[in-house]
Design goal:
Layout: H1 2-21, H2 27-34, H3 38-47, E1 63-65, E2 70-72, H4 75-78, H5 86-100, H6 107-124, H7 142-154, E3 156-164, E4 169-183, E5 185-192, E6 197-202, E7 206-215, E8 239-244, H8 251-254, E9 259-262, E10 268-273, H9 281-287, E11 291-295, H10 297-316
Antiparallel strand pairs: 1-2, 3-4, 3-7, 4-5, 5-6, 8-10, 8-11, 9-10
Helix pairs in contact: 2-3, 5-6, 9-10
Length: about 325
């Protein structure tokens, strides 16, 4: 399901350019050019009029079809050079200045960001004025970030108390930090001395952190390619099968999976892999009546017991 959505998005972006260059194109010709059925093309055309160059609802694509030919009535209006509104300029400038103050940012990147911000201010003109009165601080994880950044710079080991939501427990461990990176949240990749393996720690889950005098000496490791996201299941990871009803189909969009088979009730039977199957227990609780874990049996039993315990706690209240 996720792959289909991505393919459709890419196709519609190409479709906009294609239709602009071919006014009055025939539906059959366009469908043939993109290798899709006419019904799929009509479905794309139903979505395009809800797209445009402004989230405020203006400058939308005025595209329609009579079933035989496709007409785009405002290509020149939509293709006009974009201008930042005051709120858009403010959001961009505040975010850019905040990121430029983060510790650990490479100086070359910081300089490039400062230059880009200056160009943005010049382009925004008066609309940039409000941004000068606003600022953003990363208080929830800023102290942890600074300690990790210092440990990496000085090649020193760290002691951390870390909360693991999958197991709902706090652990204490010493780690040799390798790098900081951001994928939605900010993470530290490190060699964990407790598990003697590479581990990833989300900074906002670090309860306590302390810089140690010991020299950090993580083994030589090839850095993970994060271009496909933080979670990248391996073929060697345990297999988990989850069945969801129509209300749980979103799972296939948010969780990388091997396959998603349609069920008679409109739901899906999703097969995925994860190095830590226990982490999916929270997914089962979130789904409630919209889904259940089928395989492995012990994980299904664990999720069922967790749900019973949660219900019992509510009954007690």
């Amino acid at each position: 399901m996720a792959a289909n959505a991505i393919d459709q998005t890419r196709r519609m972006l190409s479709l906009v350019t294609y239709l602009r260059e071919r006014p009055g194109a025939h539906v059959a010709d366009v469908a043939r050019a993109f290798g899709i059925t006419e019904d799929e093309l009509i479905s794309d055309l139903d979505v395009l009029p809800m797209c445009g160059t402004s989230f405020r609802g203006g400058d939308l694509l005025d595209i329609d079809t009579d079933g035989d030919r496709i007409w785009w009535h405002n290509p020149d209006d939509v293709a006009a050079p974009l201008r930042l509104a005051a709120d858009e300029a403010t959001a961009l400038l505040v975010a850019a200045r905040a990121v430029a103050t983060l510790p650990g940012l490479r100086e070359s990147d910081r300089d490039a960001l400062v230059r880009a911000t200056a160009k943005l201010e010049a382009a925004a003109g008066e609309a940039a004025g409000a941004s000068a009165r606003l600022s953003v601080t990363f208080e929830s994880e800023g102290g942890v970030f600074a300690e990790v950044d210092r440990a990496i710079s000085e090649r020193r080991r760290l002691w951390v108390r870390y909360y693991s939501p999958a197991r709902d427990e706090l652990t204490e461990r010493e780690v040799d930090p390798i790098r900081l990176f951001a994928v939605g949240h900010t993470y530290m990749e490190a060699w964990c001395r407790l598990s003697e393996a590479r581990r990833t720690f989300r900074l906002d889950r670090v309860v306590e952190i302390r810089l140690l005098d010991e020299h950090a000496a993580p083994p030589e490791l090839e850095l993970r390619d994060l271009s496909e996201g933080l979670v990248q299941p391996s073929a060697d990871d345990p297999e988990v099968v989850v069945e969801v009803g129509p209300g749980g189909r979103w799972v296939a969009e948010y969780y990388p999976h091997d396959r998603a088979d349609e069920l008679p009730d409109g739901g899906l039977r999703i097969t995925l892999r994860t190095p830590d199957p226990a982490s999916l227990r929270r997914l089962a609780l979130r789904l409630g009546s919209d889904g259940r874990i089928v395989v492995p049996r012990e994980l299904a039993d664990s999720a069922r017991e967790a749900a019973k315990a949660a219900l019992a706690a509510y009954e007690g209240v």
